[in-house]
Specification:
Blueprint: E1 4-5, H1 34-51, H2 55-65, H3 75-79, H4 86-94, H5 102-123, H6 125-146, E2 154-155, H7 158-171, H8 183-188, H9 190-209, H10 223-235
Antiparallel strand pairs: 1-2
Helix pairs in contact: 1-5, 5-6, 5-7, 6-7, 6-10, 7-9, 7-10
Length: 243
């Protein structure tokens, strides 16, 4: 999960052999659903596009589309930040498209691809998108609550990725086509508890260190974004489960 301040369903593919040099039944190493390839491609395209902007124009992009808690202090929306009150709505989502450099982007893109591949098999494309959007909004909302009035821009797809991290323990330790277990039943599984504990411990360590390739502007970790997204994925996954 990398947060900074500053689907198609999985296809059942026919066995192929001979013409492409692979033995029958052998799957490629990077066999991502097209929807996830497109999502990662959009993040990369945004980062590449920002590289062609002047420093002043890139600041303008950040001012318009990053999530800044200070923007919600009434007059600030009218006189300090571009976009007016309309930005109150769109920045709850658009911050996820911006990243603080290629390392930040690479981590989030890798997690989006790896975890998304697991989750989309259970949810399908539409429900996966709904989960990612809900986790993105929830992460920003919790960040706003704990950093009210902060002027530091927050960027990165960490809320969405955290939602996937939250969904994984609901799925990982159960049979693929079994009914979804309740939150209580999931936490009763020691493997799922260990997974959740490891995620919490990782975020605590990052907060204590204060610097990492995943945080607020200047390297500070946007832990509330991670927590908000994770809670949506873990506690609310039943709303996105197509089974």
């Amino acid at each position: 999960m990398c947060g900074r301040q500053e689907d198609a369903s999985m296809n059942i593919r026919p066995e192929r052999g001979g013409f492409d040099g692979r033995s029958p039944g052998r799957e490629p190493i990077f066999d991502l659903p097209t929807a996830l390839v497109v999502m990662v491609g959009v993040l990369i395209a945004v980062q590449v596009g920002r590289g062609f902007l002047s420093p002043a124009d890139d600041v303008g992009v950040m001012a318009n589309f990053a999530f800044v808690p200070d923007r919600f202090l009434g007059e600030a929306a009218e006189y300090v930040y571009p976009g007016g009150r309309g930005a109150w709505a769109w920045t709850f989502l658009t911050y996820a498209l911006l990243h603080d450099g290629w390392v930040h982007l690479a981590f989030n893109a890798a997690m989006l691809a790896a975890l998304g591949r697991m989750v989309i098999a259970r949810t399908g494309l539409v429900r996966l998108l709904a989960l990612l959007l809900a986790a993105t909004v929830a992460g920003a909302a919790l960040h706003l609550a704990v950093r009210w009035g902060d002027t530091t821009p927050m960027i990165g797809a960490s809320g969405a990725v955290a939602g996937l991290f939250g969904a994984v323990p609901r799925l990982l330790f159960a049979p693929p086509h079994a009914p979804l277990r309740s939150v209580g039943a999931t936490l009763a599984d020691p493997r799922a508890r260990a997974f959740v504990f490891a995620l919490v411990a990782m975020n605590v360590v990052l907060v204590v260190l204060g610097t990492a390739p995943f945080g607020l502007g200047g390297g500070e970790v946007a832990w509330a974004v991670h927590l908000g997204g994770f809670l949506v994925g873990f506690l609310g996954f039943a709303a996105f489960d197509r089974h």
